[in-house]
Design brief:
Keywords: Acyltransferase, Transferase. By secondary structure, the protein is an alpha+beta fold. It has 6 helices and 7 strands. It has a single domain (6-175), classed as 3-Layer(aba) Sandwich (Aminopeptidase). The longest helix has 15 residues, at 96-110.
């Protein structure tokens, strides 16, 4: 029997469930050269509350309406920025990441935006290669907006290796 999933907005009370999903998803980094990410703390409830206030949180919920994945997005540089995408590994490989991205893209398009950007690893197949299959293309540093540049620099300052990071952009229409 195939499990049914829905993509929806969370309730404020459900925000407290998202860090556990992020921690579980981060365990996928353990066999990679970026295993240290598995030990990083998840998003704080204050950060999640800020995304919630901006209407920038989407959930993937299972057949029991339990959250099993989420996306965080905000507007930077006059485009949608996908800040985070996590799916619990027990529910991975079922298209939930793609569906969450499509929900974010639909929201961005309804707001009048044309593009979505993100920062990810260029040396892990389930990061940049997945996004490329969805229609994202790598950006040259000269294509970064001011806010994306600040976010990229903050990632590097936090310990993410610059050589392993890539900014990518896609037209929202491609992601629907």
């Amino acid at each position: 029997m195939q499990q049914t999933y829905t993509i929806r907005r969370p309730t404020q009370a459900e925000l407290s469930l998202l860090p556990a999903i992020e921690v579980a998803a981060a365990q996928l980094f353990l066999p990679t050269q970026h295993a240290f990410i598995a030990a990083w703390p998840p998003a704080s409830l204050d950060d999640l509350q800020a995304y919630f206030a901006w209407h920038g949180v989407w959930l993937a919920a299972d057949a029991h309406d339990t959250p099993v994945g989420f996306a965080l997005a905000k507007i930077i540089d006059h485009e949608v920025y996908l800040s985070e995408l996590d799916v619990h590994p027990d529910h991975g490989q079922r298209g939930l990441g793609r569906r969450l991205i499509a929900a974010v893209a639909a929201w961005g398009k309804a707001q009048g935006y044309r593009n979505m950007s993100l920062l990810t690893f260029n040396d892990i197949a389930w990061n940049s290669e997945l996004y490329a299959r969805l229609g994202f293309r790598p950006l040259a540093a000269t294509e970064y907006g001011a806010e994306l540049t600040i976010i990229a620099q903050a990632h590097i300052a936090a310990g993410l290796p610059a050589s392993a990071r890539v900014a990518m952009r896609a037209e929202l229409e491609q992601l629907l």
